[in-house]
Write the structure tokens for this entry.
Amino acid sequence: MRLTTLLPTLARLGRPALALGFLALFSGCDLNFWRMDGHQSTINVDGPVARSQRDLFYVTCWVSLVIFILVGAVLAYATFKFKARSAADEHAEPPPQGHGNPLVEMGLIAGSILALVFIAVPTLKAIWFTYDVPAVEKANAYEVTGTGYQWWFKFEYPGELATVPETKGQAPLVTANELVIPAGRPVRINLRTMDVIHSFWIPKLAGKVDMIPNRANFLWLKADAPGYYWGQCAEFCGDSHAVMRFRVIALGAKDFNAWLDSQMQPARKVEAKVADAGKPKAQFASLRSFKTNETGFAVGNQLDVSPLEAWQAKQFPDAGEDAALIAKGRALFQAKTCVGCHTIRGDGAQGVTAPELTHVGARTTIAGGLLENTPEQMQRWIHGPAAVKPGNKMGKGYIDNKISLTADDEAALVAYLQSLK
Ligand code: CUA
């Protein structure tokens, strides 16, 4: 079909097609979509820093909307008022042309300046506010250090000293990929990187601030209430940038202190006699939050238990632990050179190039926030890290160190790692 015949046809179809398109959109999406309330929403936010960023976004939207309406209205007025109304009009001489109107020109300049001021004042206020913890809250701020690695995050708590049996001493608490913070309290996060530039972003709380080699960046945030938040690296950093994720878990003061206490302990040892001591786990086999996160956008996610409850359930030992299998896994962790890269305090593993695993069983995710921390997913991860997360060091380590694992080895390693609550 030639373009000249196609265009009028398309124009005739235009309106019904548009209506159909809207209908499809409406029927395919639920309320969460229209409320723009995904896990990584910057519109439905849960902290003062993200709120300030969102409000500034709204200011620029409203100013732009006013300009759009004014310019559009003038354009529409001119188009209809001065259009040719007859054949004679079409061939008439153009009317006398104007050459500038001082009043209009001054008005436009003044209007532009006014629009800029409208945007600039709240922008400067927001930059000031989001830069650092407000002076009145500074004394109450909690300090954490986040370090980006290809492709995971290390979190250090410089103010908390954890027990290190290997050195018979203490060292600042280190965790990975799940940042636990006190809710309702400002948290100042030092941002570092071990390799390339990463960017630290928790859409519902704050961000983005880059983690730059040889530069000491930081950001601050506050979670209004206890909650479970999705984070994401927001700067391209190599093969698996898109799946460089993390979580932030905000807890009330009492829960936060209880969590710190348990994290300070060295690795948990499962004795045969207490194998069944676990508290009942919340059922979250059908918790779809992680699946929707894997596909990138959470629309219509029905949760049978909230993500925070799922996290809380992970803090307790699983029922029916197999002490012999766990002991075999611990030995394999040494034998298969996992100890060269990972730290498990109390079990002789002191590697520092990979995520700290002393309490990995108590996390909701593994592999840099990519996979839900279930035995099946963990087995999938240690079976073929390169297939799950292209380019990662563990996959390369398997090849360099000629590591091969049988199905029994994998089961033992999974049982051991899951027992580390
Ligand atoms: Cu780290 Cu993208």
In short: The chain has 13 helices and 14 strands. The first strand starts at residue 142 and ends at 149. The pocket of dinuclear copper ion is lined by residues 148, 151, 198, 233, 235-237, 241, 244 (CB under 6 Å).
